[in-house]
Write a structure and sequence with these properties.
Keywords: Lipid biosynthesis, Lipid metabolism, Magnesium, Metal-binding, Phospholipid biosynthesis, Phospholipid metabolism, Transferase. It is a single chain. The two termini are 15 Å apart. An eight-stranded parallel beta barrel has the order 1-2-3-4-5-6-7-8, surrounded by five helices. The relative contact order is 0.15. By secondary structure, it is an alpha/beta fold. Helix 7 links the parallel strand 7 (183-187) and strand 8 (205-208). The chain contains nine helices and eight strands. The structure holds ligand L4TTDIOY, SN-glycerol-1-phosphate (1GP) and magnesium ion. The ligand CC(C)=CCC/C(C)=C/CC/C(C)=C/CC/C(C)=C/CC/C(C)=C/CC/C(C)=C/CC/C(C)=C/COP(=O)(O)OP(=O)(O)O is lined by residues 14, 38-40, 65-69, 72-74, 79, 81-82, 84, 92, 96-97, 100-101, 104, 107-108, 113, 118, 125-127, 130-131, 161, 163-164, 209-210.
Length: 228
Amino acid sequence: MYDINGWKHVFKLDPNKDISDEHLEQVCESGTDAIIVGGTDGVTLDNVLQLLARIRRYTVPCALEVSSIDSVTPGFDFYFIPTVLNSSNTDFITGLHHQAMKEFGEIMDWNEIFVEGYCIVNSDCKAAHVTEAKTELDEEDVIAYAQMAERMFRLPIFYLEYSGVYGDVSLVKNVKNALSTTKLFYGGGIASSEQAVEMAHAADTVVVGNVIYEDLKAALQTVGAVKG
Ligand SMILES: CC(C)=CCC/C(C)=C/CC/C(C)=C/CC/C(C)=C/CC/C(C)=C/CC/C(C)=C/CC/C(C)=C/COP(=O)(O)OP(=O)(O)O
Ligand SMILES: O=P(O)(O)OC[C@@H](O)CO
Ligand SMILES: [Mg+2]
């Protein structure tokens, strides 16, 4: 599906993790709406290119979630650019983006680029450490970030990131209710069909990551549960 507004379920594949051809085929042919290629660390041009070439054997739409300037390459359907709204290091809000604009500005095709306003709420995840995210947030704080994403910055995506742990469903629902045009992506700790369905009722799009590498069968079952 090439309209990100219709995405209900996506898989996130980490170029820094190994996946066999057989497992990759099952992920790409699962019926998921798209694959996001991204990770916090160890993402290089080489491992991004290798994974892209392997995903391109299949017709599933594929987005690169840019986490370092050096690993950007042509060939993806979409480019997702994270800006971490609750980072305390300006590099991850606008700094690296400013550098990238100087390097790529001339060749950027804005039809395929989507900026994601991230709010990272799991203090223990890599992305929180790397971006020095301020994770001591209550519901009012998270909703304020969501409204900043939608109303101040008019971002297409607000990404509530619990990477590695399953989140607070009631909080996700309340964030969703505070948004009208910006799409809510939820990611973190989905490891079963039940969790995928529960979060899919709360958010616009659920992102399923680590369980692909830990329990592929469970990961694949989340697709039918959400979209079936
Ligand atoms: C050549 C060509 C076609 C060019 C296209 C033009 C283009 C799109 C250029 C890029 C322009 C641009 C503005 C780039 C942005 C530059 C940049 C580096 C921005 C900073 C990104 C950022 C904030 C990174 C911080 C980390 C982060 C939020 C990563 C997102 C992924 C994430 C949270 C993964 C979850 O963690 P994970 O790694 O899975 O953790 P585990 O391993 O523990 O599971
Ligand atoms: O890896 P998990 O915990 O499924 O999280 C998915 C995604 O939000 C990570 O950026
Ligand atoms: Mg991961």
